[in-house]
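User: Please fill in residues for this 116-position structure.
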């Protein structure tokens, strides 16, 4: 029991350490929807390719993200999101073609979203 509490507190601390400020969500007209899962230690995007200049809404499967994984970033596009149940999507517009690297707040977990 004590162990569970300690683990719980540590998980909260890790999230707190990861989560700095959140980017405000931009709501465009219609955004392409990309589902984001967390599988085998990676952020997985479906579909994995989006178009530059078109708004993209990332919809996270919140229940799959624990601890630090919940602090999601795409630094190249200034995307920061703390994934929570009931608040699990963020919209942004990729500015240029090329692979975008997603990472958790501590640079432990990664994923790639392709922009064409
Ligand atoms: Cu991390």
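Assistant: Residues filled in for all 116 positions:
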């Amino acid at each position: 029991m004590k162990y569970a509490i300690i683990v719980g507190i540590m998980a909260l601390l890790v999230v707190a350490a990861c989560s700095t400020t959140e980017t405000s969500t931009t709501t465009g007209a219609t955004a392409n929807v990309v589902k984001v899962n967390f599988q085998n230690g990676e952020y997985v995007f479906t579909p994995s390719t989006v178009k530059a200049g078109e708004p993209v809404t990332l919809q996270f499967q919140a229940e799959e993200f624990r601890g630090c994984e919940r602090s999601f970033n795409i630094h190249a596009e200034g995307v920061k999101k703390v994934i929570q149940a009931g608040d699990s999507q963020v919209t942004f517009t990729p500015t240029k073609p090329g692979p975008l690297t997603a990472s958790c707040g501590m640079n432990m977990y990664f994923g790639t979203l392709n922009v064409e």
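For context: Residues 52 and 96 are 5 Å apart (CA to CA).
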